[in-house]
C-alpha cells in the first residue's frame, strides 16, 4: 500500500522540510535582531518573520489532512500537484510577510484558494466513497 501513496508521502516530506526551513529562518532572525528565546517580541523585522512562521505552523496540520484525504479519496497526482503549489504559495507568503506585512497578501490568497480546492476534492472523494459502499 505504501507504494501507492509515494507522491503524497514525498509532498508531505518536502512540506515538513519547508516548515523546518521557516523555523530556521526565525532562528537566524533572532540572532540578527538580538532577540533571545523565549522572547517573541523585538524589532518589527523579527516579529514579522516570527509571525509568518507561526501562521504557517498553525495551518500545517489541517493542510496535511486535506492533502491526504484529497489524494487518497480523489486523485493522488492532482492532490500532490496542489500540495506543491500550496508550498509555493506558503513560500511567497512567508517571504512576503518577512519583508513587509502588506506583501503577504498574494501568498495568503493563493494558499487559501489551494487549501479550499483540496478541501472540496477531499469532500467529493469521501462522498463518492460513501455512496459506493
Describe the structure.
With 133 residues, the protein is an all-alpha fold. It is 83% helix and 0% strand. The longest helix has 30 residues, at 44-73. The model has no long low-confidence stretch (mean pLDDT 96).
What would you say about this model in short?
Helix content is 83%, strand content 0%. Helix 1 packs parallel to helix 3 and helix 2 (44-73) runs parallel beside helix 4.
Output mean pLDDT: 96
* Pattern of helices and strands: HHHH
Cα-to-Cα separation, first versus last residue: 21 Å
Main β-sheet description:
none
Q: Please report which band the strand proportion falls in: under 5%, 5-15%, 15-25%, 25-35%, 35-45% or over 45%.
A: under 5%
| Fraction of residues in helix | over 70%
Rg (C-alpha, Å): 17 Å
- Low-pLDDT stretches: none
Structural class: mainly alpha
Number of strands: 0
- Count helical runs: 4
What is the overall silhouette?
A: elongated
Sequence-ordered SSE layout with sheet pairings:
Blueprint lengths: L5 H28 L10 H30 L2 H24 L5 H28 L1
Please supply descriptive tags for the structure shown above.
133 residues, mainly alpha, 83% helix, 0% strand
